[in-house]
Amino acid sequence: MKPRRYRAPQGEPLPAPLATLALIAALLTAYRLWVIGHLGIDLYVDEAYYWGWSQALDWGYFSKPPVIAALIAASTALLGNNLIAIKLPSLLIYPATAFALFALGRRLYSPRVGFWAGLAFMSMPLVAALGLFVSTDAPLLLCWSLALLFLLRALEREGWADWLACGAFIGIGLMSKYTMAAFLPSALLLIVLDARHRRWLAHPQPWVALLLAFAILSPNLYWNWAHDFPTFRHTAEITRVGHGERGWHPGQLGEFIGAQWLSFGPLLGVLLGWALLRSRSLWRERAHRTLLLFIVPLLALVSAQALTGRANGNWAAPIFVAACLLVPAVFLTDRRRWVVAGVVVNLVASVAAYHWPDIARLTGSGLTAKNDPYKRARGWINLADGVAPFVAEHPGAILVGEDREIIAHLVYRLHPVEYAAWNPGRPPRDHYEIVTTLADKRGRDVLYVGRQPEIPAIAAHFAGSEQLGKVVVPIHADFKREVYVFLLKDFQGY
After folding, report:
1. Using one digit for the tens of pLDDT, what is the confidence trace for 193-236?
2. Sheet of 462-476: strands edge to edge?
3. What gap in Å lies between CA 189 and CA 182, rounded to an integer?
4. C-alpha dist (Å) from residue 222 to 68, 144, 169, 171
5. What pLDDT score does 9 carry?
6. CA nearest 227: which of 419, 430, 48, 10?
7. What is the C-alpha to C-alpha distance for residues 217 and 89, in angstroms, rounded to an integer?
8. What angle (nearest 5°) sits at the alpha carbon of residue 368, between those of residues 363 and 370?
9. Full-model pTM
10. Closest CA to 447 of 494, 393, 409, 493
11. Cα 67 to Cα 57: distance, rounded to the nearest angstrom
12. What is the mean pLDDT of the chain?
């Protein structure tokens, strides 16, 4: 049976489902803002790292395209370099994606499906977790949703506007995260497999949209070419492509599939699996088929990557755009309670995760290195403040950190006049090793911050070295942050 397509009459007020979704999204966002302060966390390393990028805007960075840096730059320009300002892009973008899902659900099915799709998205454990931190997944999922929305509009209308909008969002998505490229084969399959849409292959609009997408991406491609393709090298490294580590890894595949289930939620994940098992029967319905084409190819691709190499749990995150639509579309009619229960379970699990430190204290167990999910975001401000007196005592020294984690947090907190990574001629491992160097700093003193009490290999490159002290920040009974600070005199070169 063909689903009823909703068409709002002229002058009709916003439908109640959209107003309700907007209210829930506003309340959830306000709650997550409060949670950030309540948890008492600092920036995660990637957040501090991205903030550093935002201070020197460019067309590319070591591991990511530039949109995340531009978003942080815009937010901090308005609100200052504080914790909330840095995190704000994700906090706002995820609700925006829920509204895009509403529009998709209304277009494909009904406002009711759109409402539950948006709510399922906002309640997803993946969004609940990532919603507290700024990341490239936020703009990626928004661009994926909007590109799909305008693609569906373009296929049903004559003209150029929707095609150009689709191409623009594909391009911005690619400038957010390269995973956006997976949108293209799904879009091509949608056009090729539907006789009504196939005619578009002979029209210029989709090809111009594709050219527009790559035109938007081209500055990043040029940046990579000019810097010996660090982003592509990094991607190859983390996926084990070209590193002699490929083979069969069924355990990795199992972990990846488990991560998708947990990312979508326990009950919603079961419903999604059930729907995918019914793919043959669902395929007959055009709207269902559209969504399957934006789930199965990417899920299969990343599953194959997990089986033969390595895949992080969020690498297939765009599948959840279509999944949030498919599950309510398939199950709202005869298994509505399951959908409602799935969303409720997700929300309860999110609240439990947000208040885990409170739960640990109330139960008397306390927080430890093993049970604190936020430990990686604790202690960095205090650690940097502990290093600050050494920086003040040696204003002419270049601040050098052992790795990007230390550098990112020190630079964010202390704003040193000069800083650099230690890179004695090896291929760069992070963005600091691309944009900073000591090679032209012979004769200069260095303030080195690292995790080891002795650094003979590094000290050998200086005329003299002295350990100035140790900074220790207790976090839990079994967990602390600890660094050693060295004054290295008269750099002799690599």
Report:
1. 998 999 999 999 999 999 999 999 999 999 999 998 998 888 87
2. 419-421, 398-401, 446-450, 479-491, 462-476
3. 12
4. 18, 24, 20, 15
5. 40
6. 430
7. 21
8. 110
9. 0.92
10. 393
11. 10
12. 93
Bridge partner residues of 470 (DSSP): 484
DSSP calls for 42-95:
---HHHHHHHHHHTS--S--SSS-SHHHHHHHHHHHHH-SSHHHHHHHHHHHHH
* Alpha carbon distance 116, 429 (integer Å): 43
287: tokens are 């709207």
Beta strands in 223-367 (DSSP E): none
For residue 179, the model assigns a pLDDT of 96
> Which backbone phi and psi does 59 adopt, to 5 degrees?
-85, -5
| Residue 14 Cα distances to 20, 96, 97, 111, 209, angstroms | 10, 16, 18, 10, 31
Structure-block tokens of residue 185: 């084969």
Tokens of 128: 């609940």
| Nearest-angstrom CA–CA distance, 221 and 232 | 10
Q: In DSSP terms, which residues pair with 485 in a beta bridge?
A: 449, 469
Q: In the Cβ-directed half-sphere of 268, how many Cα atoms lie within 13 Å?
A: 34
